[in-house]
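[PROTEIN RECORD]
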Amino acid sequence: MRVKDNTRFEGFVQDLQESFWGDFQGRTREVLKQLLQADAEQCMAEYLGLKWHERAKSEERVDYRNGFYERDYVTPLGVIRLRIPRTRLRSFLPRCIAPLQRRAPEVAELIRQAFLRGISTRQVGRVVAVLTGEPVSAQTVSKLTRVLDQAVAAFHTRSIGDDWAYLVFDGVWLKVRRAFGPQRVLLLVAYGIRRDGQRELLAFTRAKSESQAGWEGLLNDLFRRGLQGRHLQLIITDGCAGLARALETVYPRVRHQRCWVHKMRNLLEKVKRRDEEQVKSEAQKIYLAANLACAKRAFERFRFHWRLRYPTMVRQLERDLPELLHFFALPRHLWRKLRTTNVIERCFVEVRRRTRPMVVFSNVASVDRIIYAIFSRFNQDWKNHTLQLFTQAA
């Protein structure tokens, strides 16, 4: 019985709160409506030089009142229907409302901030509709977020500085709608980590492929914006050949670490299913070794075991081994982080999650806006959350 009474009391309190705040919001919205309409009337009175019901001589009149028209204005309190006074020659909006402006600046900013926080354009419209009562289409959200183009341009040209210790590079594919059908677009991305554990998604650029020319464009852009590599200790990649050649051109003195996750995947693609577990176990002993010397001995055992059965795979691993073992030259507690590109791959998981509902982008500008929004969210969240392992190393 007591439980039932508590449930009734909680329901009563909830109904009371909804009734109070709903009434409060309604009254506040009505006051705002009266203030806006009073300001519009004042603007017309100043233009005419006459207050309501005042008369003037015909030769002194500049214009005549001509009733009003109604228009909706969306505010954080909800939709307000305003009566806009007019004369025979013009109409008079409240001074805080620009011509053709349908939403308060706070509502437009709410839409942009929701977009930047990772909510899709359709979901943004639904969220705003709950708060303001106005349904907002995905097209409207896209139009309001076009002001981000200036922020995107600033992101692409801002100074990066030269205090980065580790760089991670990778690419992600997205789809763009074209007149002749959907087309895949590649984004090349740079991720940086400072010695104190601060991290940031530094840059991204569109490219047709992961060629040397495509990667050189991104690397040269980073170099021009201040990242000259004087403090770089390691660059981690997925093993892309074009990227490796580009790094030799732009950052030839920085050690290049290839990702072990990608390398293991390549190794297992070349072996028979019955040998996968054993090959994987023996290859893992190389990068899990206690030091560089032990890793080289583990590779010798791997080569002795598999050189006759899979000679091509063993030769490729031997060729890539120096770039796979560079992480051993750095502090031990960083080895796990620095031997793979997992840190940037986790960002791409969010990119794919966010862009999957969109299926395809309508144009390349929308690609830049959505990627900038996702990266800005990451960078903002990371400002107060450093990578603790790197902090210990510093």
Remarks:
- The chain has three domains: 1-98, 103-157, 164-393.
- Strands lie at 65-75, 78-87, 164-178, 181-194, 199-207, 234-237, 256-258.
- The first helix runs from residue 2 to 48.
